[in-house]
Each structure stands twice: as C-alpha cells, then as structure tokens.
Amino acid sequence: MAELYQTQRAMRNIRRAALQRGVIGILDIGTSKIACLVLRFDGTGTFRETDGVGPMAGQVNFRVIGAASTRSRGMRRGEIDVMAETERAIRTVVAAAQKVAGVRVDHVIACLSGGRPSSYGLAGEINLDAGRVHDHDVASVMAACDAPDFGRGREVLHAQPVNFAVDNRTGLGDPRDHVGNRLSCDMHVLTVDGDVIGNLIQCIRRCDLELAGVASASYASARASLVEDEQELGAACIDFGGGGTGVSIFIKKHMIFADNVNIGGQLVTQDIAQGLRIPLPVAERLKTLNGGLEATGRDDRDLLEIGTGSGEWDTDRRSVSRADLIGIMRPRVEEILEGVREVLDAAGFDAMPSQQIVLTGGGSQIPGLDGLAARILGPNVRCGRPLRIDGLAHQFTDPGFSSAVGLALFAAHPQDEWWDFEMPASSYPTRSLRRAYRWFRNNW
C-alpha cells in the first residue's frame, strides 16, 4: 500500500521538481498543430505540502520565455497514430521553443483531446469523530468516494473535489475547521482510454522529456477561455479542434462534465477537397482565407480562383463561387453543432442556472459560426479568446492556442486532484479509486 501511495503522488512530485528548477514546458499535441510554450517561474510561490484544500503548487508567477508551433504529424482524432512522425514533430517544436527561450526543457505538461472521455460524479461521506473538520478528514472523505467500474482499459485523467458539505451546510469550498457531525464530498472524475495515455507517455519519453502532468484539452481550453464569472456562475466551453470538438461544463470554478464530439475541422477540410476536387492543402487554405457559414447574394458573384495541383497551367486554373464553398462547409459544421447539442442535453446543461456558451479553438474562427451556434445551441453564445499571459507573443493569442494557454495556467495554478491529498494508508476503502491509478504505477 505504501508503494501505491507514492505512485499516486508521483506526478505532483515531478511537477514540484520542475517548479523548483524554475522552467517547465507546455505541450499542446493536437491533430492539426503542436504548440510548445516554455515557462519561467519567479520562485515567489511556495509548494505547500500540508494544505488539504487549495492549489497544491501554490500561487506562482510565471512568464512565457519561448513559444513555437508546427504542423502536427502522426495524429488522428486527437490520438497518436504514427509514433515516429509525432515524435519528430514534438522534437521539432520543442527545439524551436528552446532556441527562443535560450534554456533547456526537461519537464513538460501535455494535454490530451482524444481517448473517448467519460465523466462520473462520485460522492463520499464520513462521520466527524472530533466534531470538527481536520485536514485528515478531507483526505478520508475523498477516499470514501465509491468508484464504479469504469470499464476495461479505462484510466482516470482528472479526479477533482467540486463540493463539500458539513451536516446540512453545502457549497463549501474549504470545509476545514467547520463544526459538525458528518462531512460529505462530491467529486468529478474524468476517465479516458488507458492506451491513449500510454502512447502519449511513450512518445514524450522517446523525445528525452519527462512528463510532469497530463490534462484534458477540453479542461485546459475552458480554463483559458472562460472568464471568472462564467467559471463561477456556470458555462459550457466548446473547443473546435482539428480532430474533434471538446465540450466541458464549469460551475463554481470547477469542471463538472467533459465529453468529445468525434468530428473536427479536418473533416470540413476533407469535404472541401472532395467537393471541389482539390488537394487537402489547397482546401485548408481556402477554408481559412475564404470560408464562412452564412451566404449572401454577393457570395454568388464572389469568385475564388483555385488550382488542382496538377501543374498544367491551361487545365489547372478554375474558379468557384464563395457560395459554393459555404454550401460545402455549412452541413458539416451543422452536424458538429448538433453533436454538441446532444452532449449538452445528455449532461443536463438545460438545468444549469446559466446558459452561457463559449466557442474557442481554431475552428471557432470560421465567420458566421457564432450565429449558427446561437440558433442550434442557444442565444447566449460568444467567441472566446484565451486570457493574456505575460510574455506570450501576439501570434499565440488566437483561439487556436486556448489549450496551450490553459495548460500554462494549469501548471501555475492547478486545482485540487484526489492524489494531491495526504492520504493515510488506513483510509483506503476496498472499492476506492486505487484501481484508477494503475497507469501512474506503470508509467512513473
């Protein structure tokens, strides 16, 4: 049991070592692009070993001292498909970011967008023998959360306490020192396919890097794109990526649900390439520069010159109207939004006190998306950009880098996770979350 206790805390310890060194890397490994940020910490924050509730790494200030991005290779729908190609792309982008920063990066935090995420709400309750909540009671009530069978090969990516209650007083963020007889806890657990995480760990190790943390891309994007009031009052963040569309719901500054629609911007590009019989790079450029979702009378007359890539000048050049391009893109984007609507309905988003929806990710920049989303998802829709962080160049502040910025915030100000708490071995119940941490034991 002592070995299990150590492996549960391994990721936090690796992150602590990186913070003490003062430099850590951020890797957003997406289907369309891979981005790397190099963060330098000023050392004013302290790593608090004894805190039961609160950010485990302390509140530390940081600055981006290096950033780079490159076209993703070897990725398919948010998961590694060809290991060697993804390894080369990661090595390329890390080397470029290190060159800008002028320092070597040994530890990285990465995000994961694939893996078929599933959300669970767990609850635990204990008696307070002393009549008051102590630090060890917080750890014990989290250990008392009875986990269901997540399924074969499923592993936990996040396990965060989202609410505490002492007797009949609920909605507590920090229950310590409250007087009462019973302490209860609600926890959100996000699971993914273990093989997807294992492949990510293996790929990063092949790049001679040490993994200091893994986070959900949907969680990271929301941390960067939702303003403080939206995180507190409740909002859904829709992350339009290349390989898929992430959905996360926040309330009381905690993620309470996450899922993924397995359709992304790359499928829109494929539709354009097939519909206009042009190469994928030409289709991607056409989508980026001339794409849209709302056709007007002018779009029928607005002709776009395209080429098939054959190299024959006489036969290669032809024109299509922008209305034709919009007619190809709109059905697929509608399909994505309908999938998002189904996910939100399944999560009970209609019962939330706030119906705010924030669109982010590279695909959110398609002109007209906010209007179409308002008709399908609800009227309270806005396009979100990531928060500005110190030292980040302007070209890395568009919605396509929300996950990377969110990971930087995750590194500096992590929210509580189950493995962050001092857990006495005697408090592990028979059917606790220990089964969910096999991948920590196997990979660290």
TrEMBL record:
A Pfam family annotated for this chain is FtsA
Q: Which family does it belong to?
A: Belongs to the FtsA/MreB family.
Gene name in the database record: ftsA
* GO BP, one annotated term: cell division
Keyword terms? Cell cycle, Cell division, Cell membrane, Membrane
Asked whether the keyword Cell cycle is assigned, the reply is: yes
Protein name per its UniProtKB record? Cell division protein FtsA
Q: Give the chief site where it resides.
A: membrane
Give start and end of each SHS2 domain: 24-225
The answer, when asked if Cell division is one of the entry's keywords, is: yes
